[in-house]
Amino acid sequence: MNAAGPQHVPVMLDEVLEGLDLKPEGRYLDGTFGRGGHAREVLARLGPRGRLLLMDRDPEAVASAVREFGADPRVAIRHANFATMTQWEEARELDGVLLDLGVSSPQLDDASRGFSFQGEGPLDMRMDPTRGPSVAEWLACAEETEIADVLWRYGEERMSRRIARAIVERRRLHPLATTAGLADLVARTIGYRERSKHPATRTFQALRIHINDELGALPAGLAAALAGLKPGGRLAVISFHSLEDRIVKQFIRGEPAPAVRRGLPAPAAAPAPLRAIGKARFATAAETAANPRARSAVLRIAEKTA
Ligand SMILES: C[S@@+](CC[C@H](N)C(=O)[O-])C[C@H]1O[C@@H](n2cnc3c(N)ncnc32)[C@H](O)[C@@H]1O
To answer: Phi then psi for 217, rounded to 5 degrees?
Structure first.
């Protein structure tokens, strides 16, 4: 932590700056401000006529953006889900959009946000605590099959049914209210199977993705970004697990959403409105050694075609 509060080390910073092909007078949007690790460097490369639009669904991230950049006339800041980007009048004719998905270090490190199984905190996990139910509220009333389905789909948790049953049995006695309570229940239900992973890792990831509708926001955000970009504008997306990366890859290729019913002919392919710039990129060994968060990061860059 420094005087500005808890920080977040930006992932693949040089690759993002290069991929966005920054122009000093350009208009850019960072849909996932976090603590501004990328935004700060984008802004440093903009001239007096450049413009930087910042969004985050987390009010604490937005407060940090206002503190650091609120007085800069080149910057505009919004507390919103990037899926709603098209509702922002200014988010038009963009030269570049960055989406650095997932959670920030300050979110993970603050036990009171309930994202981490290390430490005791309320079982919340909402990036935007002003909206929707917390994980504790959802687990208090979801069907057992629904819980198992979420753990399986978003956490690829093989013991999903066993964990869901344990949760439902436990809540009959008393509500699951804390991160430590859930982590402990999962550990006691499935034991320590993987050497370097806490048994609740997959469960926490799945519940976080579900409660924040992360896989619903992503396609909507990609479509909104495409609508806001001008021809030649660049899209840069960093994802942290294969479910997200698959969505990004298919979107860039212009492939139809996968929910097409079997037996029906594939819809005629429309010309892709995006052109991939290079292949997927991964953090270097030096970066992953310095910042373990970068280990699972995948960066994809694309350009809007005319
Ligand atoms: C990985 S961090 C971004 C870190 C940032 N690039 C930096 O270097 O400081 C992800 C941030 O995106 C935000 N976020 C995730 N999904 C979002 C969405 N759908 N809309 C807006 N913000 C979102 C989270 O609240 C979090 O602050």
So the answer is: -70, -35
Query: Is the entire prediction scored with pTM above 0.85?
Result: yes
Q: How many A from CA of 144 to the centre of ligand 1?
A: 30
Q: Is the CB of 82 under 6 A from ligand 1?
A: yes
Give yes or no for residue 269 having a pLDDT over 60.
Answer: no
Q: Which two tokens stand for residue 212?
A: 């924040």
Q: Which CATH architecture has domain 13-105+214-304?
A: 3-Layer(aba) Sandwich (3.40)
The whole-number pLDDT of residue 195 equals 79
pLDDT of 59 higher than 80: yes
User: Domain boundaries in the chain?
Assistant: 13-105+214-304, 129-211
178 forms bridges with which residues in the sheet?
A: 122
What separation, in Å, do the N-terminal and C-terminal C-alpha atoms of the chain show?
44
Q: Which atom of ligand 1 is least distant from the CA of 128?
A: 25
Angle value at C-alpha 246, between 240 and 247, nearest 5 degrees: 95
* For residue 1, pLDDT beyond 70: no
- Give the closest residue (by CA) to ligand 1 atom 24: 103
Is the pLDDT score of 39 beyond 80? yes
Report whether residue 35 contacts ligand 1, using a CB cutoff of 6 Å.
yes
| Binding site membership of 239 for ligand 1 (Cβ less than 6 Å) | no
Please name the residue whose Cα sits nearest to atom 20 of ligand 1: 81
Fold of 129-211: DNA polymerase; domain 1 (1.10.150)
Q: Does residue 217 line the site of ligand 1, with CB under 6 A?
A: yes
Ligand 1 site, residue 106, Cβ cutoff 6 A:
no
Work out the number of other CB atoms within 10 angstroms of the CB of residue 208. 23
Greatest extent of the chain over all pairs of C-alpha atoms, in Å: 61
